[in-house]
């Protein structure tokens, strides 16, 4: 499970609620949380403002929603 999904669920938010709170499209959150490689979008490659908005909406640090396994090029 991806860090974003863990944080979102811990906050008790649906994908739609997080999208509204962060001011981004729900489809983006769905892509960040998708398990299927064909749909998944790497949050570490997202625009800094997008990641910052998500972290702010979840009341956490940016590093808390990034995926450390992706930093070295390996899959999460």
Question: What can be said about this structure in brief?
Answer:
This protein is 46% helix and 0% strand. It has four helices and no strands.
Describe this structure in words.
- By secondary structure, this protein is mostly helical.
- The chain has one domain: lambda repressor-like DNA-binding domains (434 Repressor (Amino-terminal Domain)).
- It has four helices and no strands.
- Helix 2 crosses helix 4.
- The longest helix has 11 residues.
- The radius of gyration is 11 Å and the shape is globular.
- About 20% of the residues are buried.
- The model has no long low-confidence stretch (mean pLDDT about 90).
Beta-strand segment tally: 0
Content of β-strand: under 5%
Give the ordered list of helices and strands. HHHH
Could you tell me the CATH topology label: 434 Repressor (Amino-terminal Domain)
| CATH structural class | Mainly Alpha
Terminal residue distance:
9 Å
Integer average pLDDT: 91
Kindly name the structural category. Answer: mainly alpha
Give short descriptive properties of this protein.
4 helices, 434 Repressor (Amino-terminal Domain), mainly alpha, 0% strand, 76 residues, 46% helix
Topology:
Layout: H1 3-10, H2 15-22, H3 26-33, H4 48-58
């Amino acid at each position: 499970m991806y860090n974003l999904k863990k944080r979102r669920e811990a906050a008790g938010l649906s994908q739609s609620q997080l999208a509204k709170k962060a001011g981004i499209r729900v489809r983006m959150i769905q892509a960040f949380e998708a398990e299927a490689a064909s749909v998944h979008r790497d949050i570490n490659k997202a625009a800094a403002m997008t990641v910052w908005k998500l972290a702010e909406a979840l009341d956490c640090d940016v590093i808390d929603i990034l995926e450390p396994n992706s930093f070295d090029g390996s899959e999460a």
